[in-house]
Amino acid sequence: MMITDARAVRLGEVPQDLHHRDGQINHLSSVLAPNKLTRAEDVCIFGPSGAGKTTVTKYTLQQLEREFLDIDWGYVNCLSDSTTAAAVHRITRDVGLGADLRRRGSATSEALHRLREHDGTVIAVLDEVNTLEERAVLALHEIPNVAVVCITVDQDEWMAHLSEQAKSRLRRAATVRLEKYSHSELVDILTSRVEAGLQNSRVDQEALEYMADLAAGDAREAIAMLRRGAIHVRDGYAEKLTVGVVDETVAEAHEELRAETIRSLGTHHRLLYRIIDDAGQIDAETLRRQYQDRSQNPKSRSTRHRYLKDLQYRDLVEKVGEGRGAEYRSLS
Questions:
Q1: Quick check: helix, strand or coil at residue 317?
Q2: Which helix (H) or strand (E) holds 102?
Q3: What is residue 322's predicted lDDT score, i.e. its pLDDT?
């Protein structure tokens, strides 16, 4: 049996042991752990894709849950829940306070009230916070027993779009920065995943080294390659996971990551992407017109441009040219 525990190679799975992030975990724990004198603090976490921002956050909060009785946390992927109502209702449901609330038809004020009246500390994790409406962050920030964890790639890019009110509040938040993993760190992570869920004797060490080279510091990419290689061996196409198997399956791993990214997109991100992908290449003005024609509630120009930058960062589209002559091209 090649795969002994599928969780070890599942994308987005939080491992039992998290390697090479002890300093960040300890810092995050000290900031978020409530005590008799202070509430949990707000935190901003920055770093490139695949550096472990989400995993470190979830891992730390799971540890705190085991240690403290009065801590609850909720998680929002702001790519898919980018409005204030969606984000606040998601947090409220995650902490067990909003099972009867519907995102449409229930007032956001009621969800915020329930969070405010909650006896314990609530940690609101806002992943991809750069795509979330600013007022959601401010509304959660104003609740004394709620600490906000804002996760995004680029601090300057995010802050540039915030109002002075939001900047003044978030500048007081603790900061955690993550860098890309080194080659040896990625090999350690892959080795740990193999030991946790694969038949060790059927995985060549050279293959793990090769995956780490190809991933270039991105743990998500490395784990995706390990997953596709393991499935290839499991399905009988090879006896062992070798460098050759990695070469055969690396395109599938990239496609799996791409498909996962597209599934995670919210309504407006997805619509912009679909318009570009259907056209193959489209000029900015035609894209704007088609988006406004097809969207029931089109976003502002600045928000639309921010969403397009998100799509570029995720390697779903690329921008060619600037100004009126700019065009967007699908990378599928």
A1: strand
A2: none
A3: 85
pLDDT of residue 36: 54
Q: Which DSSP category does 123 fall into?
A: E
Q: Which of 48, 60, 79, 14 is nearest to 223 (CA)?
A: 14
Q: What is the DSSP string of 143-191?
A: STTEEEEEEES-HHHHHTTS-HHHHHHHTTSEEEE--PPPHHHHHHHHH
pTM over 0.85: yes
Q: What is the pLDDT of residues 134-188, one digit of tens each?
A: 999 999 999 999 999 999 999 998 998 899 999 999 989 999 999 999 999 999 9
pLDDT at 115: 96
Strand partners, 123: 73, 147
Task: Return the residue matching tokens 């976003």.
Answer: 299
Tokens read off for 219: 């743990």
Rama region for 11: left / alpha / beta (φ>0; ψ in -120 to 50; rest): beta
Burial class (CB in 10 A: 0-12, 13-18, 19+), 269: buried
Strand order of the β-sheet with 281-283 is 281-283, 327-330, 317-320
Structure tokens given for 29: 């724990």
First to last CA, the chain: 34
Q: Average pLDDT of the chain? A: 93
Comparing C-alpha atoms, which of 212, 218, 225 is closest to residue 184? 212
